[in-house]
Amino acid sequence: MPTGPKPSTKTDNASTEQQEVIDFLAATVPFDGIPHDAAAAAAMTMAVRYARRGSVVVGAGTRNDHLYLVRSGAVELHEGGTDFHARLGEGCFFAYPSLLRGGERRTRNEVRAIEDTLLYCLPGDVFLRLYEDQPAIRRFFATAEADRLRHALSLMGRGEPAGCPPGQRQEQRQEQDQGQEHEQEQGGDLTEARGFGLRLGDLVGRAPVTAPSQTPLRQAAQVMAREKVSTLMVVDDGRLTGIVSDKDIRSRAVAEGLAYDTPLSAIMTPEPVTLAAGAPVMDALVAMMERNFHHVPVLAADGALAGLVSSNDILDTLTTTGLHCMKAIARAETVAAAVSAGAGAASLIVDLSRAGLAATRILEIRSAISAALHRRLVHLAEAALGPPPVPYAFQVFGSLARRDQTGVSDQDNGLILSDDYDEDTHGDYFRRLATQISDGLNAAGFVYCQGGIMATNDRWRQPLAGWRRQFSDWITAPEPKALMHATIFFDMDGLAGDLSLVETLRAHALDMAARNRIFLAHMVENALTAQVPLGFFRRFVLTRDKEQGDTLDIKKQGVMPLIDIVRVHALAHGIAAVGTEARLDALAAAGALSPQDVQDMKDTFTLLSEVRLQHQVAQLAEGRPADNRVDPDTLSPLEREHLRDAFSVIRTHQEALSRTYAGGLF
C-alpha cells in the first residue's frame, strides 16, 4: 500500500500521466524500498487498464502475463472462480503467484472488479527481473503471509526494523547506538546486548571438577578446597549423576552430624538439570529463575560433561538481569520487602528490550519473576499463619501459567485443598491465607481480578474433589457463556504447596476434554468469538477507546485468538504443556499439526508479542502505565503489512479449527 505522499521526483521523458504512475508506484510498499530509478523504470513499462464493475479482470485457469496494482476501486479474488478468497483495494497487488510459479503461468483465482476499477499492469518479465535483482521486492512477494512474517522476524532477530529500507535501518541503528552510549554516560543501568548473544559454552572457564558418588565427604571437601570450587559434579561411569555444593555439605552433612566417610550419594542433588553448550545464556537464566538453582552443568555436543556455569558467571556477563530481582525476592522477610524487590521487573522489561532480546524470551523472564514473587508471598503468608492444617496447592491461571505475562496483568489464582479438608476445622486458616496472598499481590501491582478469579473467592478455594466436579461440569455439560469465562482455567500451573494436586487435576481435565467432541466444538465456538481485526481490503477494524481513540487491542484481537486456537488443539490431543510455544512443540511432536502450521503459528505469536511488547516498553519508558491498545498509525507501513499478515494467518487457522473440531459449523 502507498506509504503516504512523497515529494515527486521528476523523471526525464515521462509524460504527465506516466509521472503519476511513477509517483504512485514509488510510494507503494515494497517499491518504496528500492532505488527510485529502478521503480521509475518499472513504472514506465506499466499499462493502464480500466475494469467496469462486475467484469472479470483475470479468469481462473487462464494464462497471466502481468502483475496488477489497484490504483483505485476494488476487486475480489475467488479461488477456482467460486470460493471467495480476498477483497483488495487501492495499493494492493494481485496475480503474482502465477508469475512466480513459472511454466504456463496459469492462474488459480478469478479476479472480478466489484467497483469501477483503475489498474496499473506491470509486464511479467519486468516483474521477474525486479524479483531477482531487488531483495525488497523478493521478500515482499513471498507467496504466503507466513513467509513474509518469517522474514520480518529474521530482521528483528538481527536488530533491524522490519519496515525500513537498508539505508534507513543503518541510520536507525546508529541512532540507537548513540542513545545507548548517552544513557551509559549518564549512569543508566542498561543491559549489554552482547551478553544475550553468548552461548553457555562461552562461559565455561575450566575443565569440570568431578568425583564418583561413593566418594567420602571428607575427601570430596578436600578436592573442593584444593581446586577452589564451591560445587562438585558427581560422575559415575562417565555419566553425570548428581551435583553437590558447599551449602549441601554444610546443611545436609555437617548440620545433620553425618560421618566424614558418608558417600556423596547421601547428600547430592541427583539428576540435575543440564543444558547444552550451544544453548543461549538466556536459557540458563530462565531455568535458574524458574527452578531456583544457581549452577547448571553444561554438556558438549557429544553429551560429555563440558563444565559448570553459575549464576555469578552470568551476572558477571550481564549488567542487569532478572536474577537480581529473583535473589532480592528470595531474601525478602516481609511482604513490603518482597513487593519492593519485584518492582524492578518493569524497568527490566525496558532494559531487556533495548538490549535486543526477543519479546517471547522477555515475557518468560518477566513471568519467572512474577512466579517467584507469588511463591514468596505464599511462603510469607504461611510463615505468618503457621503450617497449613492439610496439604494444599497454590495455582495460577492465564498468562502467568503460560509464561507470557507482559507489563500489565491482574491476578488469577486459586487454592486446591486436600480432600482431607474440613470447612469447620480448616476453613478460617485458608481464608486468611488467601486474603494475605491476594492483598500482597495487589500491593505488588497484580490488581484484584474484576472477575473474582482469586483464592479469596470460595468457588476457587476448594478441595480437589470440588475442582474435579467443576471441570467435569464444564466439559460434560458445556454452556457457551460459562465456557467463555472458564477457558482461563485450562491454562493452569502450580507455584507452591503440594503440586501433585495440580497435576492430578490437570490429568483429569485433559482426559475428559480429549474424549468429548461436544465440549471441543463449544471451545471452538468460544475461540471464534474473537474476530480478527481485518475488514475488507485488509483494512484494520479498530475499536473505540474514550481516552485513546480508535486503536487495535493487540491482546484481545490478536494474541488471545491465537492462544485460543492452540489451546483447543492441545486439549483435543491431551497435551499437558501450558505455554503456547510449548503446546505447539508438543503438537508437532505428536503429529497433531504439520510442521508448517506449527511454524506459522509460532511466527505469528512472536510477531504479535513483539508489537505488543514494544508498545508497552515505550509506555513504561515514559513512566506511563502499560496497556494493549496500539495505534496502527504509530507503526511503519511495512510493519502494518506484517501485522495484517499475522491476522490473516490467525483467520486461516480459525477456519481450520472450525472444520476440524466443529464440522465447519462456527
UniProtKB/TrEMBL annotation:
The keyword Repeat applies. SUPFAM superfamilies: cAMP-binding domain-like (SSF51206), CBS-domain pair (SSF54631). GO terms for molecular function: [protein-PII] uridylyltransferase activity. SMART domains: CBS (SM00116), cNMP (SM00100). Residues 156-191 are annotated as: Disordered. It holds the Pfam family DUF294. Residues 204-262, 268-326 form the CBS domain. It comes from the Bacteria. The keyword Repeat applies. Residues 170-185 have a biased composition (Basic and acidic residues). Residues 50-139 form the Cyclic nucleotide-binding domain. Keywords: CBS domain, Repeat. This is CBS domain-containing protein. It comes from Eilatimonas milleporae. The lineage of its organism: Bacteria, Pseudomonadati, Pseudomonadota, Alphaproteobacteria, Kordiimonadales.
